[in-house]
Each structure stands twice: as C-alpha cells, then as structure tokens.
Amino acid sequence: MTKRFLITGSYGQIGQALIPAMIERIGKENVVATGRKKRIPLFKELDVIYHRLDIRDHYGLRSLLVEYDIDILIHNASVLSATGEKNPQLAHSINFEGFYNALEASRELNLEQLFAPSSIAAFGPTTPLVNTPNTTIMEPTSIYGISKVYTELMGNYYNKKYDLDFRSLRYPGVLGVEEPGGGTTDYAIDIFYEAIKTKKYTCFLGPDVRLPMMLMSDCLKSTFDLIEAPNEKLKHRSFNVTAMSFTPEELVSEIKKYIPEFEIAYEPDFRDGIARTWPQSLDDSVAREEWDWKPEYAFEDMVKFMLEGISNRLGIPYK
Ligand SMILES: NC(=O)c1ccc[n+]([C@@H]2O[C@H](COP(=O)([O-])OP(=O)(O)OC[C@H]3O[C@@H](n4cnc5c(N)ncnc54)[C@H](O)[C@@H]3O)[C@@H](O)[C@H]2O)c1
User: Fold this and answer.
1) Ligand 1 within 6 A of CB of 61
2) What are phi and psi of 210, to 5 degrees?
C-alpha cells in the first residue's frame, strides 16, 4: 500500500526537486509539502497539498500529521552551514528544537518512519578526512555540524529506546539547478550560473579545497533507496553517501573544456575555514552493503548535466 509522506522545509534546494519526484512516484494525494513561506509558484503548478508550518510549532506539526494520516515524515527544515555561522542562535533553535519536535511527534504518533538528513558537516578536524569511514570520530566545529551529530545521536537513541524507525543520510554537497540554501558547497552550483551568464566567477573557497559531492538525482535516489530499504537489513541508522570528490580548480578545468574563456578568481572567506574541517572523500561502503547504494553520475557527466540544465533554465546557450 502506498505510504503518505509529510515533508518539512519543502521549498528548499532539495525539496524543490524532491516534491515533484515524489508526486511522480506515489501520486500527489500521498504528498503533503510544508514550509515557512507561502506556497511557491512551483507548488501551485504541481497542485500539491501545501501548508505553512514552522517546524518549531509543536501543535501545528502534530495536527498536520494526524489530519493527513501521515506514515513517514521527511524532515528537511534546517539552517545550513554558512547561514548557521552567521546566526548560531537561529541555527540552534531551528536545527535542535525543530528536530526534537519532529522526533517527539514521530514517537508520540507512532509514525512508521522518520527520515532526517545529516551532512558531511557532522565530521570535523579530528576525523580522518580522506575516505572517511561510516563510523569514526565526529567532533564538528560548526553549529550546523553539531546539530547534525545531535540529529544522528538522538535518532539512534529513539530507535533503541522507542523502536522509532529513524533513518539518515550524510549528504555531501548536493548539485542541481535549484538555488542552494546557504551552505559551504554552494560554490559548485553558483559557478555554473556565472560561467554561463558572465564567464567569470569569484570563488569563496581556495582552489585546493576537495569536498565530496553528488548530483541532485543521486541525492533523491539515495533518499528513496534508504527510505524503502527493509528495516531488518539495516545495522546502522546514519550512512555516508557520495558520488564524487573534486576541488574548485578541477571543476574550473572541466568547465573550461566547454567554455574556454571562463575566468576564475579566488577570495576564500570563512566558508573556506569550514570546508577544510570536512571530509575530502567518503567511504560509503556501509550504505552499499546494507541497502545496495550506488550513484549514477560521476564528475564529467555531472559537469555536462549542470551546464545543460542551467543553460536551459537561463535560456542562455553555454557554447
Ligand atoms: N543541499 C545540500 O548540499 C545539503 C548537504 C548536506 C545536507 N543537507 C541537508 O538536507 C536538508 C535539506 O537541505 P536543503 O539544501 O534543501 O536546504 P535549504 O536551506 O535549501 O532548505 C531548508 C528549508 O528549511 C526551511 N526552514 C528553515 N527554518 C524553518 C522553520 N523554522 N520551519 C520550517 N522550515 C524552515 C527553509 O525555509 C528552507 O526552505 C537539510 O537537513 C540539510 O541540512 C543538504
């Protein structure tokens, strides 16, 4: 039987791709999108059920979960890394209180599953940063990273104590045509927009900062694959997932194969400091073993996909 889903933070970068993909998979009658703002034009077009909901609103969340008889909650509302460093108090309130609210509502209403993304930001400078294992030291130094460790540990705790089916993915930087929401990997999206529009880009990370990434379609694939995995196969609750790793310098040289006149300047800011405490590459073998994770897009294909997608969106040819 088809499950019914409620998604928080649904008009964010991932939500804007997730909601149409979910409607296609399970039909719009099984998808309830929520967010803090008024319904965005995309959701009007999709004619998806939409409600305004601040994730810190205990009563509002519970009412919607009951009203729509929700089976699975996808909790995407979050303040991301760069925005979190500018306002740690806001990040604390949304990422800690907001997640706790999602967790408690899932427990009280006996939901079938709670899926809440973690991030590579959950790791920190004391983590082995090359081929980072699934289980390792996690001592992040950003408020965002600390909130993701909290998400993972509390999710685990509720799984053990209350048998809540909590599942989480440590997304790397997610790349797509959708506008990013204030993270440290946003450069790898902005760069395509600027390469097509102005043929120039000033990068806020240094040329050598290597980070793990994946294309949006692989992010969605990993999300659906984990949500649908049989519970008895899962020995972990949080999983590394990745598709590629690259530096700004490597990305520039691949873009230049299509736009030779593209120029880059580097002006590293505080985000360079955050990125250097994050893994350069991830070992996602646990996800591969437990629920057959496998990405579809590698680096060169991703660059081609991004150039084509953003060029179409802007209506500006890239070659
Ligand atoms: N995009 C990435 O590269 C990436 C990487 C790792 C992890 N993640 C995680 O994936 C999830 C979704 O990320 P995203 O990229 O779509 O982020 P985003 O910033 O684009 O979207 C997050 C959404 O949460 C909403 N939100 C903020 N405060 C809220 C509140 N109080 N109540 C309700 N909604 C609120 C925002 O308005 C926004 O629409 C987050 O948990 C994020 O940490 C994303």
Assistant:
1) no
2) -90, 130
